[in-house]
Design a protein that fits this description.
Elements (H helix, E strand, L loop, with lengths): L18 H19 L6 E6 L2 E7 L2 H4 L6 H13 L7 E7 L3 H9 L4 E6 L24 E3 L4 H35 L1
Parallel strand pairs: 3-4, 4-5
Antiparallel strand pairs: 1-2, 1-3
Helix pairs in contact: 1-5
Length: 186
């Protein structure tokens, strides 16, 4: 992987991306790589408290056979255990993909102060794309949100995974057809 610059130009009206934001998003990307290693959709997350990573998580839905095994949920569970409280005030969650409705709800419920998102999710994003659960003023808590931190890297890992998955599925379908043809000819 090529070295990524930590200098991000400041844009008016958009919060500046810090070197720490880049550092922790890289840690979330490492978690996403762990998901790929076990054949899962590559989504990773870390939670930072007082300048230290206190929890890490990656997608394990198929492995654990539960809808609840999202990277953010795993991370929140570990952070609560580490801090000994369900409230994660003072924490920042870094996630490679915009949270879904379940994860965004858990983020709000756990009182996470800040969420840093790598790339948006046009099909399930509830951090501002489809819905904005994270900043809904009707809830008793809102999180500060920073978007597009290491967006190219967070997008690339997902695209690479799905391109490979489509290729594998196509090959498996071809092999099944060949086997069926061979069986029919016997």
């Amino acid at each position: 992987m090529e070295k990524i610059s930590t200098q991000v130009p400041e844009q008016p009206g958009i919060p500046a991306v810090s070197a720490e934001d880049i550092k922790y998003m890289k840690a979330a990307l490492k978690q996403a790589e762990k998901a790929i290693a076990i054949g899962e959709v590559p989504i990773g997350a870390v939670i930072v408290y007082e300048g230290k990573i206190i929890a890490r998580g990656y997608n394990r839905r198929n492995t654990d056979k539960t809808t609840l095994a999202h990277a953010e949920i795993s991370c929140i569970r570990k952070a609560c255990k580490k801090l000994g409280d369900w409230r994660l005030e003072g924490c920042t969650l870094y996630c490679t993909l915009e949270p879904c409705q379940m994860c965004a709800g858990a983020i709000v419920q756990s009182r996470i102060d800040r969420v840093v998102i790598g790339t948006t999710s046009p099909k399930s994003g509830c951090g501002g794309t489809l819905l904005n659960i994270l900043q809904n003023p009707d809830f008793n808590h809102q999180s500060e949100v920073l978007y597009d931190v290491l967006r190219p890297e967070c997008t690339e890992i997902l695209q690479r995974f799905f391109k490979d998955l489509r290729r594998r599925n196509k090959e498996e379908k071809k092999m099944r057809r060949l086997a069926e043809t061979a069986q029919a000819d016997s």
